[in-house]
């Protein structure tokens, strides 16, 4: 079905009835009852077709060649059906993504790469047999330690397609003449996304159509990426993902395990093949945040007004597939200064390829920038909120465009009021309560308002005043299923109960990834445009069966800079004896445009704050440079925040709407909660102790 | 699929006979550690003897036998669950360090499942030990120690060897070391009592052996002698997150002061420091008879740590355990600063 292009107009304020209300999560009852089928839980046809279980065999060397895969013992194990390796796996079409060239040649690019796949009648047999596969390697020397090497280079672009370098004015001259200079380096470690549901999929190949129940952030992106490599038309790859247990970016693009299970299924026509990636395997195969080293130089006049901002980033990519985290991107638009320079350089390593992890760029970049700003405030003798207010730009420093809404100062002021900022001692190390040094800190947050083209919706009139609304969007636990129903209701001018929404299936109109905090705006724009076209074509009392499929045009202003903002406030306690760090209070105040559903929005923002605290205090993957192996590969050794760490945690958003950013009036809320939080904690820890920590996680040993 | 035999033991002697007669057999208690090892391939027993139904689940106030030092005390059955032991009124009043150490460990769910004996027999959480794709002398003798020169944050600073640098993970064991507990062990030849300090061992050249128990010997009970010091005892576990984390370092201490505020009796044990709970006898001796000031405690810890060997990744443990000991002894003096 082809879609019409429909110029979209924003939802009228007086048409808004369901949007903005605390609509309970429509799939909540199914989920809490355990009846929502996640990827490997599908039992319907064709996934019930004599299912086989796949288990991945991973390389134990970081670089080299596979000389031989001896699967004799594995194949002899009871229940084992076959073992695929690079000599026996189906051939893929030529592509440009090395990550997806699974079992296509003998080259080993990183430790943990898939070198064989075992298929067996039970997962236990597959797992046991995987341990019996013997792989001989020609091992070559590797570089897995993050350090400046002679291979370090400046890429053309960083994720997604931003220039690696920008420069304006005379940074060095301005710094030389600045009254105050902050010159320091800030670091963030390797982090792993760790959604609750590990990556998993079931694939079935009937000789014509490949059917895939996947745990992904986008069914159409999976089909669009995999089909050409498999030599299939897109219609031959049917992907569904009705329920997904989180992604944090790691399911935003298909990774090697998805290709592995698809290849395995194509060797077993008529049988379903199930693959559940283990938590340990995720640390090698499903993406991670690359570590970053940000060198900041801030120059200011005596009043704290910035005259120069320089942010130079050094960070690893994998040698065999480039991924440059856009760490300096937020620095380009955050504060006013006439002279500015940002750049990224990449160190190629023989490691798994980095990928998206919640707020790529903004999370590590704003950690660095916002700690640097705190240092500048101290150096200038200014309150850190006042420093930020003084450096508000009139227009976007990067593009020169006006902001559709620049809510930073309002967030800072509202947060200060609610947090009790005025009672804060100006000096660090001023408050000792019992055995704990107590301090507070603040940091700013920002995230761009993205709205992706390429989304279509279909609206059909049904009996009894009901409407079927279909779009291939995926709800990864965010509440998309609920808010799209609300948006559709208001776009059509009916009650939410009249909307029957279908999502997460490539048989439905195409939708872009649930990533970049873009989902609600992008999918919502398609639904609003389609509703407007539907009403124009079919009127207010349509005959059952009529339908419209459309995609939105003119959905976002091109004449404005579109960004969300926020401010996070942290209270930190540092144990005077052991240095242990606790965060009894955390507050985030956000300017995100219109909030579609306060219940699910609050969960998104609180979840972001928790994750921000988690990376601030705990999260760090240790990649052993001798082997390239991430050895902290489970949730006992890779620490995420536990319940006991999450104390008084509050979020609030400003009452606003932004029709320039999207027809639904919102700017996206999935990622901004994780931005700035770690900096507010590090800044609060400084205020508590007088010790400046310039890298995360902020651990106890820093305060001894 | 790996097949194994499962026996549910009806009596302790029968369980001991089954396991001691078969080198590939293993006791199964609460299963909170062994079941993980089965999944990871770290342990590959052929026979599991489930001892969790044995009637070793009582906490009794008793007169201890002579070879446990005599006098009043507590006898804790090996199958008493961690959460039950932590909540027991006699433990909370007579040996608060034991209760606090237990509550500092694991999670509520795990404490409900884990047993007293099993807690003491749990194995290291060294990341290399738990990963069969890496070399580990404890898991595979002679294969090498990946932790030396590798991930060091949790490594030992005292008593390590060139073969193994890991630490014992138990919190309970640190507390029991501090209160001079005695472990009751049943073997093929009958019962014996092991002073707690002699239960766990340093790695030396045989890191595959965590304890001095022979294969098939079963812990049936732990005996706790009562003392004034044990009744004034506490535990501090320094860790990165507020719960569900192993210790960076931990301190179990029991203290009795005389009327002049001088140390009449002190017991200090450290966790996260060595391959076994580290009883800090040198520091204890240095403090006896003296007022336990901040400076004196630091000096006593320095004596105890004189042989400490650290790397960049775990050097923090020396100042951290010193400060934690200062903190704990100060809090046992009633919060004097």
Automatic annotation (TrEMBL), chain A:
InterPro entries: Ald_Oxase/Xan_DH_a/b (IPR000674), Ald_Oxase/Xan_DH_a/b_sf (IPR036856), Ald_Oxase/xanthine_DH-like (IPR016208), AldOxase/xan_DH_MoCoBD1 (IPR008274), AldOxase/xan_DH_MoCoBD2 (IPR046867), AldOxase/xan_DH_Mopterin-bd_sf (IPR037165). Residues 33-141 form the Aldehyde oxidase/xanthine dehydrogenase a/b hammerhead domain. GO terms for molecular function: iron ion binding; oxidoreductase activity. It comes from the Bacteria. SMART domains: Ald_Xan_dh_C (SM01008). This is Molybdopterin-dependent oxidoreductase. Keywords: Molybdenum, Oxidoreductase. Residues 1-24 are annotated as: Disordered.
From TrEMBL, chain B:
It comes from the Bacteria. The keyword Oxidoreductase applies. InterPro entries: CO_DH_flav_C, CO_DH_flav_C_dom_sf, Diverse_Substr_Oxidored, FAD-bd_PCMH, FAD-bd_PCMH-like_sf, FAD-bd_PCMH_sub1, FAD-bd_PCMH_sub2, Mopterin_DH_FAD-bd. Residues 1-229 form the FAD-binding PCMH-type domain. Keywords: Oxidoreductase. It holds the Pfam family FAD_binding_5. One of its GO terms (molecular function) is oxidoreductase activity. Gene3D superfamilies: 3.30.465.10, CO dehydrogenase flavoprotein, C-terminal domain, Uridine Diphospho-n-acetylenolpyruvylglucosamine Reductase, domain 2. SMART domains: CO_deh_flav_C. This is Xanthine dehydrogenase family protein subunit M. It comes from Nocardioides flavescens.
